[in-house]
Amino acid sequence: MAARGHVQDPNDRRLRPIYDYLDNGNNKMAIQQADKLLKKHKDLHCAKVLKAIGLQRTGKQDEAFTLAQEVAVLEPTDDNSLQALTILYREMHRPELVTKLYEAAVRKVPTSEEYHSHLFMAYARVGEYKKMQQAGMALYKIVPKNPYYFWSVMSLVMQSISAQDEKLSQTMFLPLAERMVEKMVKEEKIEAEAEVQLYFMILERLGKYVEALEVVQGPLGGEEKTLCSSKENSGLFPLPEMRSIPDDWQFYLLYFDSLFHLIDQSWTPPQEGAHSAEGEVHASTAQALSFMEDRIATEEAKESKHLRGPYLARLELIRRLRERSCPEAQQLGEPLELMFQFFVKFGDKPCCITDLKIFLDLLTPDQHVQFINRLMEAVPLCAPGEDGVALPGDTRALQRHLCVTQLSRSLGQQHALNTEGKLGLIKELKAHYQHGLQFGKSCLKTELQFSDMYCLMAAHVYVDLWLETGDVWGFWTPNTSSTTP
């Protein structure tokens, strides 16, 4: 319960043992400690809420809710009680109760910046965009800070997005949001890049593309607001940014979107002068191929710290060219080999599985087994033990093996095993899990172990068996040890 780090209530010392028990998962002791404290201090509302949290976590939801409401009806304004109730309602999946909590707090302490801010966030969690708008302006009147003003503006944008009547969105919500931002622009009160981004978003949604371009090219898009150099907006002209920040995946996607849109439009650059105000524009597959070759060559020239972006972008370009039946896709290489090379470079990173998974469709069905076998060749495993299972010697090898195992499942190879094969796979996954625990001895109880994913995969294979046979015995084990999946 990290929230207690912000609590300044004088009763914090008395409450600390309960917080500690809850943090450590000892809910029964937390309940007992709360009961002891309440016998001495019956009006210590936060102790009741902390007890309710313990009850909630031990499955006694009705008791927890009743106890919490005893405090909520009193409309508390102390930080301890408010934060504890917020945590409890979140665990109960009742975020609407948090709004009522802070509505009452704001009524009692109308000048509290903190309570108004919490109220705005509570409305945001339940999608009450109109109330968000009102809360944002109320907060700005109390504390005239730009972020609060633009919270209200963003709430109008959210109302326009969620409006069922598009006409209402275009004639009321967005124009009002535009006027609110223009007021700040005229008064020269724009302070942050995010404020300019919001202005740009509003103009774009209104279809005012000329005005949006003027914002980008004008003073608001200059260095003082850093809009043009920002990660979020440089997609308008990604080439310079891609060269300076070559690992940003979004830039490549924007680049490909722009490239093929221009190709579809048969756009050609002017014979004289710059392609655009932002510089060079690519509008042919030949330019894209040349650009990717340049990016890859730059990466290959490095001795270490390779970036994933260019290699993934090459695979993405192959996909898009194939979708258009463009023969140029072959010039970029064979996907199986390119994905293998990617695994060699980045297979020990947890992100490798999600990186490669989205490109598995580039492989033909008859390449699946070959692909997994190639990857396994790049996984350094120790000699098999008595159980016949070869195991990794460190966390990097473990991560590589984990990646291959997950990719194998994504390709359907685990599903294709017969019952005996699935049981053998489960045994192997359990062995890898138990072996991997040695690498996480220094981890806290609340932290994930390096080998935890093996447990999850074993459970998935058990589910496969259940779907095939209807047997549920595999889900249960007589061993109650917490380290046995």
TrEMBL record:
Keyword Cytoplasm: yes
GO cellular component: NatB complex
Keyword Lyase: no
Keyword field: Cytoplasm, Repeat, TPR repeat
InterPro entries tied to this protein: NAA25_NatB_aux_su, TPR-like_helical_dom_sf
Main location: cytoplasm
Domain of life of the source: Eukaryota
Localization, UniProt: Cytoplasm
Subunit structure as annotated in this protein's UniProt entry: Component of the N-terminal acetyltransferase B (NatB) complex which is composed of NAA20 and NAA25.
Function summary: Non-catalytic subunit of the NatB complex which catalyzes acetylation of the N-terminal methionine residues of peptides beginning with Met-Asp, Met-Glu, Met-Asn and Met-Gln. May play a role in normal cell-cycle progression.
Family statement: Belongs to the MDM20/NAA25 family.
Protein name per the record: N-alpha-acetyltransferase 25, NatB auxiliary subunit
Protein source organism: Cyprinus carpio carpio
